[in-house]
Amino acid sequence: MGVNLTELVKGEETEISELKGRKIAIDAYNTIYQFLSIIRDRFTGEPLKDSRGRVTSHLSGLLYRTARMMEAGIQPVYVFDGKPPGFKKETSEARRAVREEAEKKWKEAVKRKDMEAVRRYSQQASKLTDDMIEESRRLLSCMGVPNVVAPSEGEAQAAYFVRKGMVWSAGSQDWDSLLFGTPRLVKNLTITGRRKIPRKEKYIEIKPEIIELDRVLKALEISHDQLIVLGILVGTDYNPGGIKGIGPKTALKIVKEQKNPEAVLGSVDWDFDTPAEKIFDFFKNPPVQEMEIPRERLDPDRLMEMMVEEHDFSSERMEAVIKRLEEAKKDDAQSDLGRFFGR
What are the strands, taking DSSP E only, across the chain? Predict the structure, then answer.
């Protein structure tokens, strides 16, 4: 999802321990989709489910990965999408069609016992429902983790929080955060650790990567407006696939040569319902809202009730997670006190 700038932009690897004390606004939808895609049975491709058949992969990922971040001293703030722009409807419908086709191929792969195809197509068939979103928000509140709903795109609101100095960075796997103007982006935050390379019996260690917008623009020798245009040429959520025949490197060459965003967008063969200028303006001036980041309180009783009684999670493992969260909250409180007294 989103624009692909991997060929042009490289992050600076860091250790998760180096992010201690940092408050990070995490793109909730992007993160939950990751958990729904990754946390699946390796043989059937099925997501985790409780005894009543309800999917719990998203809850498992949120619980353990968020606890790990907090244990490392990171203060997460999850930002959920609000109402998408009207012109995103075409993208949503296209993604629905992709999911439906992937589900068919997934079932066929299970029948012929093609495990790699099972993994690939089951991930592509992942679906995030309104009920999952509500459950995710309830879980985070029980864990004492702040979460808010943006007026529109979560990445835009997260970028706004960073610009206002309310958080240190945005956290997402998508490059769109840079187009929305976040001064700083952390990638791989919720997927750090040892991961298998698709279609290969090989594993790699994934670490958080920090990307700073000013450095990106300086390295590419372009302005933020040009970066937005570059992203539109390559393809965004609002014009999937971008302009035929134009990849990241070609797009960079074009925006450097023509410089003026209007000239660039007016010179290409635009084959999308939404005008390019409208997409540009949405990235430049997205709907965001001035809001307070709420303070949430860890509620062990509610957390146990939700995860153990409602969704069949192990009570022993939940008790261990709660102890970790209590220690993390205690460390946060001590850090806040130290900052207050200037230590």
Answer: 12-13, 23-27, 75-80, 147-149, 169-171, 184-187, 193-196, 203-206, 209-212
Domain region containing 249? 221-285
Size of the chain, expressed as the number of residues it contains: 343
Query: Tell me, what CATH number does 250's domain have?
Result: 1.10.150.20
- The three-point CA angle 28-31-36 to 5° equals 120
In the three-class reduction of DSSP (H, G, I as helix; E, B as strand; rest coil), residue 17 is classed as helix
Count the alpha carbons within 13 Å of 116 in the hemisphere toward its beta carbon. Answer: 6
Query: Which residue in the block uniquely carries the two structure tokens 């250790």?
Result: 15
Listed in sequence order, the residues at least 6 apart from 49 whose beta carbon sits closer than 8 Å to its beta carbon are: 55, 56
In this structure, which amino acid lies at residue 162? V
Spatial contact of 136 and 59, defined as CB atoms under 8 Å apart: yes
Last residue of one domain, picked from the residues 220, 238, 272: 220
Closest by CA position to 275, among listed 261, 289, 257: 261
Question: Residue 190: inside a domain, yes or no?
Answer: yes
- Is residue 254 assigned to a domain? yes
Tokens of 53: 């058949």
Helix (H, G, I), strand (E, B) or coil at 186: strand
Residue 6 per-residue DSSP state: T
Helices 28-38 & 130-143 angle (0-180, nearest 10): 100
Q: Is 95 or 49 the better-scoring residue by pLDDT?
A: 49
Report yes or no on whether pTM surpasses 0.70.
Answer: yes
Phi, psi (deg, nearest 5) at residue 325: -65, -40
Q: Whole-angstrom Cα distance, residue 294 to residue 291?
A: 9
Each residue's pLDDT tens digit, 230-264: 999 999 989 988 999 999 999 999 999 987 888 89
Yes or no: say if 186 and 25 are a contact pair by the CB < 8 Å rule: no
For residues 5 and 181, the answer to whether their CB atoms sit within 8 Å is no
